[in-house]
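retry 2 of 3: previous attempt timed out while embedding shikimate-3-phosphate. Reduced batch size to 1 and resubmitted. Inputs unchanged:
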Amino acid sequence: MNQTISSPHKIVGEISPPGDKSISHRAALLNSIANGTAKISNFCEGDDRTSMMGCLNSLGAEITEGKIDGEFIIQGNGLQGLSEPTNVLNAGNSGTTMRLVSGLLSAQKFYSVITGDDSLRFRPMKRITTPLNLMGAQVSGREKNAYAPLTFNPSNLKGIEYSMPVASAQLKSCLLIASLYAQGKTIINQPSNSRDHTERMLKSMGSNIQSEGLQISISSSELNCVDVHIPCDTSGSAFWLVAACCHSNAKIIIKNVGMNPTRTGVIEVLKMMGANLVVTNESVQGGEPVADIIASSSNLKGIEISGEIIPRVVDELPILALASCFADGKTTIKNAEELRVKESDRISATVDSLKKLSASITELPDGMEINGTGMLSGAKVDSHGDHRIAMTNGIAGLLADGETTIQNSEAANVSYPNFWKELSKIQKA
Ligand code: S3P
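retry 2 succeeded.
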C-alpha cells in the first residue's frame, strides 16, 4: 500500500496513540502466569499484539476480550499453569514477543518451538540463548543458537549472576521471567538503564525483586494478578511531538502518555533541542507515571545524542533524525549500533529515506550525522517493512515541501494501525 502526504498549513488537535506496547506485552504475559484474575484496559493495538496473544493462547493462557475496545480479562493459572503447544509458536515481527516468551519457554516442563517472520528470524538471539543455557535451559537455534527458530526442551533452571553485554530491556526481561522459575537467586548487571516496565510490574505482583543502581536481583516467587490500565505509548506519541515541533504552525495535545523515565529520553532530547513541550496533569497509574503533553512549533537546534541516553531513546532515533533536519546546526547520533538489529537496519533505512527527501545526512557505523537545513522536499520513500520507518516517513510527509509517497506504508500496522487515519485527521483539522 502507498500513502501520499503533503504538508498542511497548520497542525492542530488532540491525538490518542494506542496503549503502550511494552507495558501491554508484560501485562499479558506476567498475568498469565500469576494467580487470580486481571483486567487490562487500553491494551496496545496492531500485529505485535496479535503475535503476543497468539503465543500465550497457544500455551493455554486464559485470555478473553472484555466488553470495551482494548480490554482483556486474564485468568492466571500460576507459574506452572501453561501447557505444551501443539504447533510452532509464531512471534511474527515482534522481537519483544520472541525474547520475553523465550524466557518463559526455557523454564517449562514441555517441548516448544518459536519462530518469526523474515525480519525476526535474522535478529540476534544469542544474547538470550547464551544466558538461558547458562541457567540450565535447553535452548537451541539456527547457526549455533544465534537465530530463530528456537527450540526448548524441558529443563530445571538455576539462578546465575550475569553481566549483560547490551543494554536491552528485552534481554533483561527474558532473564527476569526465566528466573521466576529458577532455583536460587539471579543477579543481573546492566551496562546502562533500559526500560524497567518488567521490574515495576513484577514488584506490583509481589515478586521477590530488588533493583539497586544498575543491578537487579530476583528469586523465584509466585505472582499475584494485577489490573493494569495501560498508558498511551510514549514511542507512538513521539511521532506527533516531532510533527508539532517542526511544523511552523502547530499545536497538539496528547493525553495520558507514559512518562516512565526509562522511556522519556525522547522528551529530554527534544527539550535539549529547544522544543516547546509542556508536560501537565502528571499522575501515577498502576505504578507507571503518566501525563498530558502539549507540543507546539519550535525553533530547534542541533545537539549530540549519545551515551547513556541511547537505550532510553532507542525506538525514537529515526524520528529524532527527522527532527534534526529542521534544527539549526549539526546533530550527531552516536553509540546507537543497536539500531542496525531492529525490525530493519534503522540507521541505513533512516538515512536512505531522509536522503531521498533531500536531507543533508551521513551514515556513521553507530549512528548518523545531520546538518539541519530547515526543509525537506517531497519524494518517494519506502517503509523498509519497518513500522517506525513507515511512520517517520509519514511525519516527514507532513513537513516536506510537495508530495511524499510512502511505499509499503502498511508496515505501520505492527504497532499503530490507526496511524494513517490520525495523520489525515490532523492534516484536515
Ligand atoms: C522493548 C525493548 C527495546 C525496544 C523494543 C521494545 C521492550 O528493545 O526497541 O521496541 O518492550 O522490551 P531492546 O530492549 O532489545 O533494545
